[in-house]
């Protein structure tokens, strides 16, 4: 009898020790949970910037134009306004003397205006490199911004282009559709109506109607109190978006009570 009790005691002790060791094995694994994968780097893409103050950025795509861009540059100089030009590399190589004028911000808009989202990585890389080289040759500076033609770019492309070139991707929140050539009055009215603090305004300095619209645009936006800066300056002014206030306990209780009522109440 004593022998039987002794054997049972040994078996129970062995099971308890095994359980303790099992808990020890699991414990560290539970404490060391794998960290979640890093989220996409913020601050790569901008179509509008939250700023404190009436600051906006005018941007012009697809130039330089031998006939129209100099007229725009003269106008901007008269108003003492700096803007951002997103240039086509082919045009930069053809008119480097225009690019170097006035000291505006110069940015990359690809070499020949293809849809980058439909290109291979090597193809897109070549478009950006050639344009960057042309801009550097004309101005002595490398660009820090990219606007993809048509605004077409994949999330994956944004990441590797930012990592490889250091470019921020710049889109827009005001588009007058001036490429459809609706006339200078329509272009002006669309820009003035839709611009808000922090806006990035899209226009093209290759259309006569756009250039004709600009005196009215600059005058009316100025009259509204807007101040003109480059895109990089606008991004540097970025302030955090205010957080939405959390609902008070009273409103939460009210919602709960309302939800508990039957349709017949």
Verbal overview:
- The protein has a domain at about 55-235: TIM Barrel.
- About 50% of the residues lie in helices and about 10% in strands.
- The chain is built from ten helices and eight strands.
- Residues about 1-40 and about 255-265 have low confidence and may be disordered.
Short description:
The protein is an alpha/beta fold. 48% of the residues lie in helices and 11% in strands.
Name the descriptors:
265 residues, alpha/beta, 48% helix, disordered C terminus
At the first level of CATH, the class of the domain at 55-236 is: Alpha Beta
Going by CATH, what is the homologous superfamily of the domain at 55-236?
Answer: Glycoside hydrolase/deacetylase
Q: What fold name stands as the CATH topology of the domain at 55-236?
A: TIM Barrel
Q: What's the total count of β strands?
A: 8
């Amino acid at each position: 009898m004593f022998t039987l009790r002794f054997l049972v005691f040994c078996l129970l002790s062995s099971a308890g020790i095994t359980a303790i060791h099992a808990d020890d094995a699991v414990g560290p694994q539970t404490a060391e949970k794998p960290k979640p994968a890093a989220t996409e780097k913020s601050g790569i893409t901008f179509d509008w910037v939250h700023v404190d103050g009436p600051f906006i950025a005018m941007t012009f795509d697809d130039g330089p134009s031998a006939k129209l861009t100099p007229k725009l540059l003269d106008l901007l100089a008269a108003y003492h306004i700096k803007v951002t030009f997103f240039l086509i590399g082919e045009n930069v190589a053809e008119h480097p003397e225009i690019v170097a004028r006035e000291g505006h911000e110069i940015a990359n808009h690809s070499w020949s205006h293809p849809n980058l989202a439909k290109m291979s990585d090597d193809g897109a890389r070549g478009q950006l490199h050639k344009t960057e080289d042309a801009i550097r040759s004309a101005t002595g500076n490398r660009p820090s911004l990219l606007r993809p033609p048509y605004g077409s770019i994949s999330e994956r492309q944004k990441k590797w282009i930012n990592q490889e070139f250091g470019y921020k991707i710049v889109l827009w929140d005001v588009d007058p559709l001036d490429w459809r050539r609706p006339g200078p009055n329509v272009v002006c009215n669309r820009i003035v109506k839709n611009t808000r603090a922090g806006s990035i305004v899209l226009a093209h300095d290759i259309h006569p109607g756009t250039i004709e619209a600009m005196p009215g645009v600059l005058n009316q936006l100025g009259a509204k109190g807007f101040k003109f800066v480059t895109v990089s300056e606008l991004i540097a002014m970025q302030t955090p978006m205010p957080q939405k206030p959390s609902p008070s306990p009273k409103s939460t209780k009210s919602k709960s009570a309302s939800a508990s009522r039957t349709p017949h109440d």
